[in-house]
Specification:
This protein is an alpha+beta fold. Helices cover 28% and strands 26% of the residues. Helix 6 runs antiparallel to helix 7. The relative contact order is 0.11.
């Protein structure tokens, strides 16, 4: 390896720290969109340290994906938070951020030990455990799905039987990206889903000993991105993006996100609900990604929140389309100590994010993939959209072959390309290995 590797299992010292830096950030679990932190901090005159568990301790989703290029040091975290904090103190780290969901709790603990801004680690469960999250929201008078955290199937079945709705949602308490989410109608489907989830490692490394069973809500989905920073009168929250979130089919697979004008009525209502939720969940620092549903007759209902950046998007495409993105906004708050003022901002154009949906296991077809990636409104994408790449049947965000960012002045142009994308999928986009 060509980068300085520090294991916190033993003492380490003697780090050369440049004196001309504006600051140094530790990015905990710099995976997914968290990998973009390094480039953005460097743009602001900072450098970065990566903090990661050993590769064998990572969830399979992230193993082997760390690109160490550009990091001043890579600190390998074992089980000793104090040792990792000592290593970061020796490196003169001046900020700690979570790159992805698996880094949230550790980033909070490290920031606290170093005396740096961060969310209170004593309330971390509100931000990682969906059962504790719902309890905190309800306690604050915020609408949330009726839920039960259960470690026994019989408790889940009894609770579902007492509901006044035929369908329920069963999911992991601490996963993300729609991993391990089942919509169930009746006790037989609950039993089947429980057998597939309970005690099984989830995508974020959790053990699924407790599962969350919730009422299934009917309404319109939305996603709200925000950035927070502490202030003299309490946390200051800036809503950076509001998206209308379309789901597809009976399993509600991620389909399409459409960026909304924050000045419109519905985004303003969602923003107010999100700010109340951020306070209830103890988020006073950093980015957050919040999912809500607008339920007729009930209003906004907060589904769940992640105290980290949005997980799957092309930051270069977002910056081209709207002038910023979730990571850039989060770094601004770290560097300046205050969220960026966005009161006068409007989207420069119409922006949508389209998730690819593979109806079966397959292989990306070269010709159809080229047609897709050269559509007029496509500005960027995430994941490996390379001819010949194997894909799995899409059952959630984590199994989507990729997500495209589309932008255009005329929304009809996006609608046309969206229809073409779905037509290409039907025409054999995933049949490359059989032609």
């Amino acid at each position: 390896m060509t980068f300085p590797l520090i294991s916190t299992g033993r003492a380490s010292a003697g780090f050369a720290v440049p004196s001309v830096l504006a600051g140094r950030a530790a990015v905990v679990a710099p995976y997914g969109s968290g990998k973009y932190y390094r480039e953005e901090f460097e743009r602001r005159g900072w450098d970065c340290v990566a903090v990661t568990p050993p590769d064998e301790a990572l969830p399979p989703l992230y193993r082997g994906s760390l690109d160490p290029t550009g990091y001043r040091h890579v600190v390998v975290h074992g089980d000793d938070v104090a040792a990792t904090a000592q290593a970061l103190r020796g490196l003169r780290v001046s900020a700690v951020v979570a790159g992805t969901e698996i880094g949230v709790s550790l980033a909070e603990q490290l920031a606290h030990r170093l005396g740096l801004p961060g969310n209170d680690p004593r309330t971390s469960s509100r931000r990682r455990d969906k059962g504790a999250m719902v309890a905190a929201l309800v306690s604050a008078g915020i609408e949330a799905p009726r839920s039960l955290s259960a470690d026994r199937l019989q408790d889940a079945l009894s609770w579902a039987q007492a509901l006044d709705t035929p369908d329920v949602v069963l999911k992991a308490a601490d996963s993300a990206g729609s991993g391990g989410v089942f919509i169930c109608s009746g006790p037989d489907e609950i039993r089947s889903a429980w057998a597939q989830l309970h005690g099984i490692s989830n995508a974020m490394g959790g053990d699924n000993q407790h599962l969350i069973i919730q009422e299934r809500l009917q309404g319109s989905h939305y996603v709200v991105n925000s950035v927070s920073a502490p202030g003299p009168g309490g946390a200051r929250h800036t809503i950076t993006e509001v998206w209308a979130d379309r789901r597809s089919g009976t399993t509600r697979v991620y389909d399409r996100l459409d960026l909304l004008d924050r000045a419109k009525f519905v985004p303003r209502v969602l923003a107010q609900c999100t700010v109340r939720a951020l306070n209830a969940l103890g988020i006073s620092e950093g980015p957050a990604h919040t999912e809500l549903m607008y339920v007729p007759g009930r209003g906004p209902v907060l589904i769940e929140n992640g105290a980290r950046p949005e997980g799957a998007y092309d930051q270069a495409a977002m910056r081209e389309a709207v002038g910023s993105d979730h990571i850039r906004d989060a770094v601004h708050a770290v560097v300046t100590g205050t969220p960026k003022s966005l009161a006068a901002d409007r989207p420069r154009c119409t922006v949508s994010q389209i998730s690819l949906i593979a109806p079966y296991d397959g292989v990306l077809d070269e010709g159809l993939l080229l047609t897709l990636l050269t559509l007029p409104t496509v500005r960027g994408y995430v994941r490996a959209l390379v001819p010949g790449t194997p894909v799995r049947r899409t059952v959630g965000l984590l199994t989507s072959p990729g997500r495209l960012t589309l932008a255009a002045e005329d929304p009809r142009a996006i609608d046309r390309d969206y229809a073409t994308i779905r037509a290409l999928e039907s025409a054999g986009l995933y049949d490359g290995g059989t032609r």
